[in-house]
Design goal:
Peptidase_S1_PA, Thrombin, subunit H, alpha+beta, 30% strand, TRYPSIN_HIS, six-stranded mixed beta sheet, signal, 17% helix, 319 residues, 7 helices, Peptidase
Length: 319
Amino acid sequence: MKASPRILTLSLLSATTLASTLLVPTAAAAAAPRPAAKAQATTKAARQQVEAFWTKARMRSATPMERLLTPGTATARKLLEVDGAGLLAPTAYPSGGASWTGGGQVVKTTGRVFFTYQGRTASCSGSAVVSQNKSTVITAGHCVKLNGAWHTNWVFVPGYHNGNAPYGVWTARRTLTTPQWGSSENFSYDVGAAVLNPQDGKLLTDVVGGQSIAFNQPRWRRMYAFGYPAEAPYDGSKLTYCSGPTIVSLLWGTHGMNCNMTGGSSGGPWFVNFNEATGTGTLASVNSYRLNLPILWRNMYGPYFGNDAKALYEEAQKS
């Protein structure tokens, strides 16, 4: 099914101006810069306020992040045309966007992300991962910060299904992103993280488990992508997935996969070595953006998890 026209020309599974996004990331020769971070609900009163804010009705009415954005500039569109040159979309794939009915751990570790963006409620997706603090969620950078502003009222709802939160609503005490996304919104580094507050004295992964995560992995892998697309033809009520071979963007070095998930799926996990029987895999990217271009409109793109993504994860899991 062709992507909704509301997926931006540079469609971010979210998108903003990409004039600064020019170079494919290379292996870092030195230690990665420290991630950007923002304190969120750090007191009991603040946590209670955020929890009270996110009623079921407000979650249902939250707008997919991408619908709150405007298309990129003419320069960004020109860059996208260059990026498309010479790329062919994979033609064989088991799922280009279907409800996940396989069960397993992924049903609990994947969830919807809700937050306030410029005074409006919005949604993305995210994944609980194994971490030292047992409280870390990985998502997209634009799902924690965009246009220079950090999102507020940030929560993660693992296992969200048809308006229900079977494992609770978890507030963030800190959100983080890569320095490249934080300073210039470079889509090669569109990775974010959140550190969540305990709930009823319990930590996130003690309740829902956590997926493994890896960095600097080989490219051109078969991968599975998950998320909660909330823009037509989807409505955000069900966990959705895509799977198949991946390509590499010539300009940004991001992964690409045939996938028609829409706005709201941003930040959902991409797995290598995914086991359908157990619903477990190794997180190696997240849903980030789409291209509204011939041939490539079927593709979802996600950032390569290199040294900067690793530094982000290390900072988050020690928080």
